[in-house]
Structures are given as C-alpha cells and as structure tokens.
Amino acid sequence: MPVIFTAHSVPARTIEEGDPYQAQAQETAVLVARVVGLGEFKFAFQSQGMSGGAWIGPTVEDTILGLKSKGHRGVFVQPVGFLCDHVEILYDIDIGFKQFAEKEGMRLWRAESLNDSPLLAQALAEIVRGRLEP
C-alpha cells in the first residue's frame, strides 16, 4: 500500500524568499522512510490556506488521484510535519481526505498521533536536558 507523508503547506513566496521549510519537511520524510525500511513513498503538502497567492504542493488530493490512476485502491497517510492531533489531523486527514479518497473509490488510513506518548515526552525531555547549560 502506498504511503503519503504530509506536512503543512506554506505560501510559495515563503520558499521563494529562502525559507528551507520545504526541503526540511521532505528530508524528514526521507529519514523516516529510511528508519522504517520504506523504499518508496509520496510526499504532499496539506492544509493550504485561502489567503491568496500560490501555496506549495503537491496537494494530498492530487497525490491521491495520482495513486488512483496507477491502480491503487488504498493509501496510508502519515503526517510527518505534526506530532499531535489537532484540526489538520482530526479534520483535514480523518474527515476531509478520507471522504475524498472514498469518493474516488479508495480507502485511507493513518497511524495514531504521538499526543501524550510517554516515549515522546521522554525524548523531548532528553533533548531539552542535552541543551541546558551545566
């Protein structure tokens, strides 16, 4: 089953002005895929705003349609740009993208977010401790 890693989109002008966000988000997906042994995946940006002007893509919807055109009937969406549940997860993915996929004759799944995971809390605490001055 194909995997789509996602991160929140930003206005294209942000990237054009030199912000490394797009490259960093895509690099995060590459690193996660490598750790879990995933050879092939797609990357898409979600939650494009309505503020006018272009936002970076591709969109999740376009990526789902591309997978459908290759014969896939299901997709696993994994947001690598988000740690915890919030509107971009609970609505955009769990409702919006899921309904979009179903309308296209596909199924959509995603893993649970880390939220209050003790492992996440421990990892964050170790990062903070490692940066505190002695």
Features:
15% strand; 5 helices; four-stranded parallel beta sheet; 134 residues; alpha/beta
Fold topology:
Elements: E1 3-8, H1 12-16, H2 21-36, E2 42-46, H3 60-69, E3 74-79, H4 87-103, E4 107-109, H5 118-131
Parallel strand pairs: 1-2, 1-3, 3-4
The DSSP helix count reads 5
Poorly predicted runs: none
**Helix and strand sequence:** EHHEHEHEH
Portion in helices: 40-55%
Q: How large, in whole angstroms, is the Cα Rg?
A: 16 Å
What is the topology, as strand order, of the major beta sheet? 2-1-3-4
What would you say about this model in short?
The protein has 134 residues and is α/β, with parallel strands linked by helices. The chain has helices at residues 12-16, 21-36, 60-69, 87-103, 118-131; strands at residues 3-8, 42-46, 74-79, 107-109. Strands 2-1-3-4 form a 4-stranded parallel β-sheet, with helices on both faces.
Descriptive notes:
Helices cover 46% and strands 15% of the residues. By secondary structure, it is an alpha/beta fold. The chain has helices at residues 12-16, 21-36, 60-69, 87-103, 118-131; strands spanning 3-8, 42-46, 74-79, 107-109. It is globular. A 4-stranded parallel sheet has the order 2-1-3-4, sandwiched between helices.
